[in-house]
């Protein structure tokens, strides 16, 4: 009798756990994942990093962002070796994640039921579900585990839908189809592993806005991505502002160093190692003469950073 009661309790617990788990993460769970973010959020719980910071981030080099994150202990935020629709362009945005797996009919049926309970369109393919909830400035980031044949996540129709909702692009660890049609979408860009004429046939969506892996990087919903011809780097939302400002100052340091090397004021060894107090003082004076309207940050942001950095 006790065994039957115990088994019944286990079954009830398992049933509750399955019914409580939806396709998309709850706002509460996303807030737990991104607890260090203190600013505004979307209704789905994702951090809403400002458009101004996203614009400034476009001028940051991948290496500078990578170095900053490594110093903070985030060693698994970069991935490279992409095909890119428009390699000469830079993309930044707020991440919306999606997880795909190989197709399994019984699991696919459960996902369809769960999606219906979340008022998602169960007539078309579930690969449209993440696209339907994109917000302006979002980047659709999907783990397709590198699959290309029978794993093409979008073609030109869904590509147009992505751009209509987000005014931005995508990053897929997987495949796409109809690249010619995707290239025709003005302002649209995407990073992907390969292309194939096959449709999405042996792959299924399982989760939206949960942690995913993109190559060697871990990505959380609400991260901010910097993507260019040199790769993609995924930045925790609470570090974006400091990363941008720090990288901008590094850029100014480089300008100063290059100028002083051309002028032969200092040797390469002096510039390329820890600066002396005299060089630091020279840099601070050089910054004071830098035109305000050419600074990538406000003068107050710069002055505060320099003071706190001990120049």
TrEMBL record:
<keyword id="KW-0479">Metal-binding</keyword>
<keyword id="KW-0489">Methyltransferase</keyword>
<dbReference type="InterPro" id="IPR005493">
    <property type="entry name" value="RraA/RraA-like"/>
</dbReference>
<feature type="binding site">
    <location>
        <position position="177"/>
    </location>
    <ligand>
        <name>substrate</name>
    </ligand>
</feature>
<keyword id="KW-0808">Transferase</keyword>
<dbReference type="GO" id="GO:0032259">
    <property type="term" value="P:methylation"/>
</dbReference>
<keyword id="KW-0732">Signal</keyword>
<feature type="binding site">
    <location>
        <begin position="155"/>
        <end position="158"/>
    </location>
    <ligand>
        <name>substrate</name>
    </ligand>
</feature>
<keyword id="KW-0460">Magnesium</keyword>
<feature type="signal peptide">
    <location>
        <begin position="1"/>
        <end position="20"/>
    </location>
</feature>
<dbReference type="InterPro" id="IPR036704">
    <property type="entry name" value="RraA/RraA-like_sf"/>
</dbReference>
<dbReference type="GO" id="GO:0008168">
    <property type="term" value="F:methyltransferase activity"/>
</dbReference>
<dbReference type="GO" id="GO:0046872">
    <property type="term" value="F:metal ion binding"/>
</dbReference>
<feature type="binding site">
    <location>
        <position position="178"/>
    </location>
    <ligand>
        <name>Mg(2+)</name>
    </ligand>
</feature>
<protein>
    <submittedName>
        <fullName>Demethylmenaquinone methyltransferase</fullName>
    </submittedName>
</protein>
<dbReference type="Pfam" id="PF03737">
    <property type="entry name" value="RraA-like"/>
</dbReference>
């Amino acid at each position: 009798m006790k065994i039957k009661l115990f088994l019944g309790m286990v079954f009830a617990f398992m049933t509750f756990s399955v019914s409580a788990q939806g396709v998309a993460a709850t706002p509460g769970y996303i807030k737990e994942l991104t607890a260090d973010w203190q600013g505004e959020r979307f209704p789905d719980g994702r951090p809403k990093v400002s458009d101004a910071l996203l614009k400034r981030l476009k001028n940051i080099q991948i290496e500078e962002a990578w170095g900053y994150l490594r110093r903070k202990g985030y060693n698994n935020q970069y991935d490279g070796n992409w095909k890119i629709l428009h390699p000469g362009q830079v993309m930044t945005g707020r991440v919306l994640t999606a997880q795909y797996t190989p197709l399994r009919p019984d699991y696919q049926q459960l996902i369809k039921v769960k999606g219906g309970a979340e008022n998602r369109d169960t007539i078309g393919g579930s690969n449209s579900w993440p696209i339907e909830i994109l917000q302006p400035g979002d980047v659709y980031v999907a783990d397709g585990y590198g699959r290309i044949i029978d794993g093409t996540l979008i073609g030109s129709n869904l590509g147009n839908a992505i751009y209509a909702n987000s005014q931005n692009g995508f990053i897929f660890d997987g495949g796409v189809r109809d690249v010619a049609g995707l290239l025709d979408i003005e302002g649209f860009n995407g990073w992907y592993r390969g292309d194939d004429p096959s449709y999405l046939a042996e792959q299924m969506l399982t989760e939206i806005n949960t942690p995913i892996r993109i190559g060697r990087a871990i990505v959380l919903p609400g991260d901010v991505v910097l993507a260019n011809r040199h790769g993609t780097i995924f930045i925790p939302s609470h570090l974006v502002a400091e990363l941008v400002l720090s990288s901008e100052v590094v850029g100014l340091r480089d300008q100063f160093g290059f100028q002083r090397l051309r002028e032969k004021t200092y040797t390469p060894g002096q510039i390329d190692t820890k600066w002396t107090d005299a060089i630091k003082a020279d840099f601070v004076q050089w910054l004071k003469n830098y035109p305000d309207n050419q600074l990538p940050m406000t003068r107050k942001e710069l002055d505060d950073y320099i003071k706190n950095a001990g120049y």
